[in-house]
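Customer escalation, tier 2.

The customer says the design service returned an amino acid string that "doesn't look like it belongs to this structure." They asked us to rerun it and document both sides in this ticket. The original structure tokens are below, unchanged.
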């Protein structure tokens, strides 16, 4: 999820609000943005959100008809959770060359998801 990718898919960056360093107020900033934005992406930088705070923000998103995407942190009780990690690379030979492919293991868990083993993409 990046601005270039959003633009290439037709997003109007004039309608985007970027808060580069909300610090400890990141959850509060996201909650406020949910009042006027249809999609809020919240980067937690490894933080763990207490369940009571998470429920309050999710309730706000639902009441506004907005979507909240949380990255880089722990948000228990999410409708869908997607975990991924790089499983390997191809094309680099014996320590040099160009990467020609990346293998990623992805696991999705949620109320609407089929619970199963990680899937390799």
């Amino acid at each position: 999820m990046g601005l270039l990718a959003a633009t290439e898919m037709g997003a109007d960056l004039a309608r985007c609000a970027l808060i580069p360093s909300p610090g400890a107020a990141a959850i509060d900033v996201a909650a406020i943005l949910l009042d006027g934005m249809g999609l809020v992406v919240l980067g937690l930088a490894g933080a763990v959100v207490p369940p009571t705070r998470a429920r309050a923000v999710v309730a706000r998103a639902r009441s506004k008809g907005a979507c909240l995407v949380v990255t880089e942190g722990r948000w228990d009780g999410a409708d869908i959770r997607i975990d991924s990690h790089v499983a390997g690379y191809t094309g680099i030979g014996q320590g040099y060359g160009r990467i020609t492919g990346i293998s990623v293991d992805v696991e999705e868990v949620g109320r609407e998801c089929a619970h199963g083993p990680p899937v390799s993409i």
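Tier 2 assessment: The sequence is consistent with the input. The mean pLDDT is 81. The CA atoms of residues 62 and 68 lie 9 Å apart. Sent an explanation to the customer and offered a walkthrough call.
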